[in-house]
Amino acid sequence: MSLTLVRTRFSAIAAKIETTPGTDSIAGLPVAGDFILGSAQARFGPNVVTDPSFSGALDELPGIVGSLSPTIELMVPMRGSGTAGTAPSWGRLMRACTFEEVTDAVGVVATAATAGTTNSATFPVAFSSVANIYRGIPGILTGNPAAGAVSPIMGWTTGRVASFGETFGTALSTTT
């Protein structure tokens, strides 16, 4: 018996956030909006326990499978839904993994920084003033540094100051 079931293409999993804790929101009848498309793989790892029975031999008896521990691995494209204010389908799974899902009702267009240092930039009022709302999002910088850069935003203050995970050769400025 194989303990690994592999589905490499055209896989889907039905997931929905419970409105009432402990109550199945899908109730066995998933609809199209409940499915998350991607590549799914399920594994059933055996938990082997020692056989406690007496055999009369000096050697221990071989272990027996006491239970199976299932593991589900999903690979989904990490992209948005394509509609402002609408969360992507995989966001439901992130909430199950203790992440917080945040959507932006209006996309923010490319704009220049209002000030900066060698490892931070102050953004204009078009951006949110909620602390750490953009943490982890890649910042695409052009103009200054001259060659451009993609650097993750490590911190975001209520004053719209983004801290980057690297130090640039020159201070970021209004040409960034």
Please specify the SSE layout and strand pairing.
Layout: E1 4-6, E2 11-14, E3 35-49, E4 64-75, H1 91-96, E5 115-116, E6 120-122, E7 138-141, E8 149-156, E9 161-164
Antiparallel strand pairs: 1-3, 2-3, 3-4, 5-6, 6-9, 7-8, 8-9
Summed up:
The chain is mainly β. Helix content is 3%, strand content 31%.
Characterization of the model:
This protein is mainly β. The protein folds into 2 domains: 4-85, no CATH class; 115-164. The chain is 3% helix and 31% strand. The protein has 1 helix and 9 strands. It has one helix at residues 91-96; strands at residues 4-6, 11-14, 35-49, 64-75, 115-116, 120-122, 138-141, 149-156, 161-164. Strands 5-6-9-8-7 form a 5-stranded antiparallel sheet, with no helix packed on it. Strands 1, 2, 3 and 4 form a 4-stranded antiparallel sheet that branches. The chain starts with a strand and ends in a 12-residue tail after the last strand. 8% of the residues are buried.
SS content category: mainly beta
| Radius of gyration over all CA atoms, rounded | 25 Å
Oligomer: single chain
Q: Strand arrangement, largest sheet? A: 5-6-9-8-7
Mean pLDDT: 82
How many domains, as an integer? 2
**Terminal Cα span:** 59 Å
Molecular shape: elongated
What low-confidence regions span 5 or more consecutive residues with pLDDT below 50?
none
The share of residues in helices is under 10%
* Biggest sheet descriptor: 5 strands, antiparallel
Give, in order, the helices and strands. EEEEHEEEEE
Number of helices: 1
Strand content: 25-35%
